[in-house]
Each structure stands twice: as structure tokens, then as C-alpha cells.
Amino acid sequence: MHDLRLVGPALAAWAAAAWLVGRGSATALGVAVVLVVVAATTGRRRPAVALTALAAALVAVSCAWRLADVESSPLTHAAQSRAMATLEATVARDPRTYERFGTVASVVELSVLRASVQGRTVGGRDTVIGFLPGPSDDLAVGQRLVVRGRLAPADDTDAAAVLTVLRRGRP
């Protein structure tokens, strides 16, 4: 028979992660602080509750760290003003081609190596979702490319921005 004492903490940690990934870093950090206080105040009387709160707090801190990384990205800030950008990036996932209103286009996840936005060049490993005109059969995972287009805020908390690609080429 398996030891089921860790089922509660594991479920609490997964539930915290699922809920927090759609929130901001401040919310995730606030939840982590509350959970640490709960763990500290119930530790001796109810160790199972303390362990559950501590496991969820660790996950909350991890979510806060990742969300803060995306929120503090220069690309995230530039996307708010829908700035033009030139990105040197690698293809992170296989592109997907789709048809909309009779026009073929593609969407691809890009890992940004360097970005030039509003006269500033920054480095980093931000993720950007690129929408390209036409098919993208020539793109492969790991391939480097240079794209130019307009940034927009991303709906996904893992991506710093969305880029509507106007031009693309090789570095």
C-alpha cells in the first residue's frame, strides 16, 4: 500500500500553480506570504496543514518568480505601446499554418536572442508568439531568423509579447 500523506500537499501545490499562472506576480507573492504564515502558525498543532501550506507556498514563489520575469521584460513594456521591433530569434516550436478569410498564415513560438525596439537593443531569452503571413514550411525548430513587425500584448502569461511579422529573413 502506498503512503497517502503527501496527496494533500501535492494537490494543494498543483491547485495553487493552476490558479496562479493566470494572475500577476504580486498576487502570487501575496499568496506565498499568506501560506508561509499559515504554515508557521499551524506547524506544531497540525503538521499536515503546515506541510500542505508550505508546499503550496513554494509553488506560489516559483510562479511569482516566473511571472515577474515576463512582466519585467522590455518586450512586454514595448508591447503595451504596440511598438515596432526587430527580433533576432530562434524557432522554439514547430510553426502551425492556418487559413483565415481565405488567406494562409502561420503562427510560431520564438525564443528571442536580441531585440531592437524604439532605438534600444536588448538581449534576453523572452518568448514571443509570431504571426507570419503565408505558409512557414521553411522554418524548423532551432532555426535562427530575423523578424520585423509590430508588438502587441500577449494573452499567454508565458509569452512576453505577440509579434505581427511584416518581414522576415536570415541573420
Quick summary:
The protein has helices spanning 7-20, 25-42, 47-71, 74-80; strands at residues 84-91, 96-100, 103-117, 120-123, 127-133, 144-152, 161-169. It is an alpha+beta fold and 171 residues long.
How does this model look, in words?
The model has no long low-confidence stretch (mean pLDDT 88). The protein has 171 residues and is α+β, with helices and mostly antiparallel strands. A hairpin with an 8-residue loop joins strand 6 (144-152) and strand 7. The protein contains four helices and seven strands; from the N terminus they run ααααβββββββ. It is elongated. Strands 1-3-5-7-6 form a five-stranded mixed beta barrel.
Unreliably modeled segments: none
Mean pLDDT: 88
Give the number of DSSP strands: 7
By secondary-structure content and strand pairing, the structural class works out as alpha+beta
Strand content: 25-35%
Task: Give the overall shape, derived from the CA principal axes.
Answer: elongated
Helix tally equals 4
Query: Which strand order do you get reading across the main beta sheet?
Result: 1-3-5-7-6
Q: What is the N-to-C succession of helices and strands?
A: HHHHEEEEEEE
Q: Main β-sheet, in a few words?
A: 5 strands, mixed, barrel
Compute the separation of the termini in Å: 58 Å
Report helical residue fraction. 25-40%
**What gyration radius follows from the Cα positions, in whole Å?**
21 Å
